[in-house]
């Protein structure tokens, strides 16, 4: 689960991480009122969408010469002008795809006199099953570009879960960033706060880009100027307060609907819808569709204990995608029995008035009962003996119907 920048900063501040003052706004009037509460005279007006690259992004409605989704304002009139241009318009960035995302929220922050920018992130290192701290002196840039062009400038520090974060981890980050003296101590404080936030919220990723040295009233300060935080969705039952931060307008409507039925659904760009139980089996199903020359339209895992209602909901979600020209159901019945799945498939096909080819491969518990239900349904359902047979048949059916 992702959250907006302003929510991330408010959260990190609770763990002692220093961030510039800022206020979220949903309207032009709120944006101006927010700026009036900040010291000024320099403000930053930031579009709030779940995507990176906002500063370099372009608004569809404003033309190629318009400014991006993060702008400086030197007075209240400029805050108002920027807010009017941003709110309600569609921001296209390298991460949104060409369709972009509509800006419904702004974040008005106090301006900062930046001296130096860094990159700092905490994430789960899948290779070691540990939390890794990634630091680079190349802040304010796409970290992917840094990794490609200057990999030596990226430093990774892995934390042993048996001992947790130790003072030497913070010192190592400060050294990697070239910080000394008081700034090195501030870096250690930032790292400690981020690590506590990572554990305390069951985060998957906390990315600070940039972490900046800024001129303050009492000397240089190390401030978080931008923050991206993502949580483990499977842990949200432990964090009801964090679950309330979810912005459904930023998510695909089909994925939102799927989550209501506890379905794992991700829309893809192909033309063959997939309904599978088990993430590994779903990945294999998508791979074999591609091997047969077509592309999957979605990843959809109905889980190990799906009911007839859940299967029906899955069918409806798949068919809402106009790109779907055929559906492949691949089920291994263990906890979920094949006859229950077959009942759900038949009920769903009748309810949605299925008009695209459907190939079903069942195996496992009550497989014969399931096949009998499909065969006696009176529907044009094509049965398959194994996964290879199923993929070949759905590809052939889709191409025949084209």
From TrEMBL:
Its cofactor is Mg(2+). The keyword Ligase applies. InterPro entries: ATP-grasp, ATP-grasp_succ-CoA_synth-type, ATP_grasp_subdomain_1, Succ-CoA_synthase_bsu_CS, SUCC_ACL_C, Succ_CoA_ligase-like_bsu, Succinyl-CoA_synth-like. Mg(2+) binds at residues 209, 226. It comes from the Bacteria. Residues 9-55 form the ATP-grasp domain. It is an enzyme of class 6 (ligase). GO terms for cellular component: cytosol; succinate-CoA ligase complex. It holds the Pfam family Ligase_CoA. ATP binds at residues 46, 53-55, 112, 117. Its EC number is 6.2.1.5. Keywords: ATP-binding, Ligase, Magnesium, Metal-binding, Nucleotide-binding, Tricarboxylic acid cycle. Substrate binds at residues 277, 334-336. Coiled coil: none annotated. GO terms for biological process: succinyl-CoA metabolic process; tricarboxylic acid cycle. Succinyl-CoA synthetase functions in the citric acid cycle (TCA), coupling the hydrolysis of succinyl-CoA to the synthesis of either ATP or GTP and thus represents the only step of substrate-level phosphorylation in the TCA. The beta subunit provides nucleotide specificity of the enzyme and binds the substrate succinate, while the binding sites for coenzyme A and phosphate are found in the alpha subunit. NCBIfam families: PRK00696.1, sucCoAbeta. PANTHER family: SUCCINATE--COA LIGASE [GDP-FORMING] SUBUNIT BETA, MITOCHONDRIAL, SUCCINYL-COA SYNTHETASE BETA CHAIN. This is Succinate--CoA ligase [ADP-forming] subunit beta.
